[in-house]
UniProtKB/TrEMBL annotation:
Compartments where found: Cell inner membrane; Cell membrane
GO biological process: regulation of cell shape
Swiss-Prot/TrEMBL keywords: Cell inner membrane, Cell membrane, Cell shape, Membrane, Transmembrane, Transmembrane helix
Name listed for the protein in its UniProt record: Rod shape-determining protein MreD
Membrane topology: Multi-pass membrane protein
Keyword Membrane appears in the UniProt entry: yes
Transmembrane segments: 6-22, 34-57, 69-87, 99-116, 128-147
Gene Ontology CC: plasma membrane
Known role: Involved in formation of the rod shape of the cell. May also contribute to regulation of formation of penicillin-binding proteins.
Length: 157
């Protein structure tokens, strides 16, 4: 029960960070907070947080951002599945190596979202689509430390 509350609380905070307004000039520098939190929990506790939670959180991000319903859900499920496959290997990597892997996963997210947006006619080609992946990869070590300390503080296993 306590672990479910902590999961829910971290997901709500991530969604609140996703909903923060950004200036138009800095919108490319917004990290993927919800995906970052999902990836942490999938790596830390893959038997409790998995593809279903990723799908639901992706749906919430779709509703927050007002895009195509299911767009983020699709990418979150793909990325959560990839993380669940490699979670034992990821745990052995150093934090910066995990950050590189997170960068690659979030790049996949950004690329699929760009393709879907471009297909609908809402996006123009630019390399700036990878900037959120870079920022999220850089934030991974600190996010990992914060979420791990929360997990250990409340003895979630």
């Amino acid at each position: 029960m306590k672990s479910s509350f902590i999961f829910l609380l971290t997901f709500i905070v991530a969604l609140m960070l996703e909903a923060l307004p950004f200036p138009d000039d800095l919108v490319w520098f917004r990290p993927e907070w919800a995906l970052l939190v999902v990836l942490y929990w999938v790596i830390a506790l893959p038997y409790k947080v998995g593809v279903g939670v990723a799908w639901f959180l992706g749906l919430m991000v779709d509703l927050l951002q007002g895009g195509i319903i299911g767009q983020h859900s699709l990418t979150y499920v793909i990325i959560a599945y990839a993380c669940a496959l490699f979670y034992q290997r990821l745990r052995m990597y150093m934090r910066w190596q995990q950050g590189v892997f997170i960068f690659l996963l979030v790049s996949i997210n950004q690329l699929v979202n760009f393709w879907l947006d471009h297909y609908v006619g809402n996006a123009e080609p630019t390399l700036m689509i990878f900037m959120p992946a870079i920022i999220t990869g850089f934030l991974w070590p600190w996010s990992f430390v914060v979420l791990r300390s929360i997990r250990r503080l409340y003895s979630i296993s």
